């Protein structure tokens, strides 16, 4: 499955997208745990939301191989 990243999350991953084998994670919560383990700098983010098919998703949401998955890092503005 393809996971897109923006802002500081993209910098931490070193790319604007990440490919994860579908059998590696099955829920948003498992995806977060995978990201924190593989990319420990993600733990430094104050907040991190995951969107699935253009909607914010809770940790219980199931992921499918064809879902649009996006990491949304903290956003600052003025």
Tell how many strands the DSSP assignment holds.
5
* Spans of at least 5 consecutive residues with low confidence: none
Shape: globular
> How many angstroms does the end-to-end distance come to?
35 Å
What's the level 1 CATH class? Alpha Beta
> Strand fraction band?
15-25%
CATH superfamily: Beta-grasp domain
Largest sheet: 5 strands, mixed
How would you describe this protein?
- The protein is of the alpha+beta class.
- It has a single domain, classed as Roll (Ubiquitin-like (UB roll)), CATH 3.10.20.
- It has 2 helices and 5 strands, in the order βαβαβββ.
- A 5-stranded mixed beta sheet has the order 2-1-5-3-4.
- Strand 3 and strand 4 form a beta hairpin.
- The chain is globular and about 30 Å long.
- About 20% of the residues are buried.
- The model has no long low-confidence stretch (mean pLDDT about 90).
Q: Would you kindly provide a brief summary of this structure?
A:
Helix content is 23%, strand content 22%. By secondary structure, the chain is of the alpha+beta class.
What are the key terms here?
single chain; 78 residues; alpha+beta; Ubiquitin-like (UB roll); five-stranded mixed β-sheet; 2 helices; 5 strands; globular
What's the SSE blueprint?
Blueprint: E1 2-5, H1 7-13, E2 17-19, H2 28-38, E3 49-52, E4 55-56, E5 69-72
Parallel strand pairs: 1-5
Antiparallel strand pairs: 1-2, 3-4, 3-5
């Amino acid at each position: 499955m393809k996971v897109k990243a923006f802002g500081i999350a993209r910098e931490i991953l070193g790319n604007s997208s990440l490919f994860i084998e579908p059998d590696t994670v099955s829920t948003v919560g498992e995806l977060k745990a995978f990201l924190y383990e593989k990319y420990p700098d993600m733990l430094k983010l104050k907040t991190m939301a995951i969107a699935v098919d253009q909607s914010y998703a809770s940790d219980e949401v199931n992921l499918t191989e064809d879902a649009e998955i996006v990491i949304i890092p903290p956003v600052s503005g003025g």
